[in-house]
Amino acid sequence: MIDYNLVLAITMIFFSLIALCINKHNILRVFIFIELIIVNICLCFLIISFLNNTITGKAITLYVIIIAAAESSIALSILVCFYRIRGNIGINLLNLLKG
Q: Are 89 and 79 in contact (CB under 8 A)?
């Protein structure tokens, strides 16, 4: 039995991956697409969890959302500091972060 919500979440993952591959100049868009992929994977976990009537997918989703929130806040703070120093946050300048 095909659940159309699961099909929608999987197609959103693929569209986000395609957009991630196409866009390689703006780092904020790259982070947005990565977060969109993470949210859609969590949506897939939730849908499968509701279909199988288990709690493991819900627990994994909660854990992944907490980790994604911490990751995005750290990444955005690094980008703000980098923008204050360099004045630009292009992907071609991110190799300067190596230290």
A: yes
For the chain, 99 residues long, give each residue's pLDDT as a single digit of tens. 678 888 999 999 999 999 989 987 888 888 889 999 999 999 999 999 998 999 998 999 999 999 999 998 998 898 888 888 888 777 777 677 666
User: Which CATH number characterizes residue 38's domain?
Assistant: 1.10.287.3510
Give 3-state DSSP helix, strand, coil % of the chain, rounded to 5. Answer: 85, 0, 15
Domain containing residue 77? 4-86
φ and ψ at residue 90, rounded to 5 degrees = -70, 155
Domain count, the chain: 1
The alpha carbon of 37 is separated from its chain's Cα centroid by a whole number of angstroms, namely 4
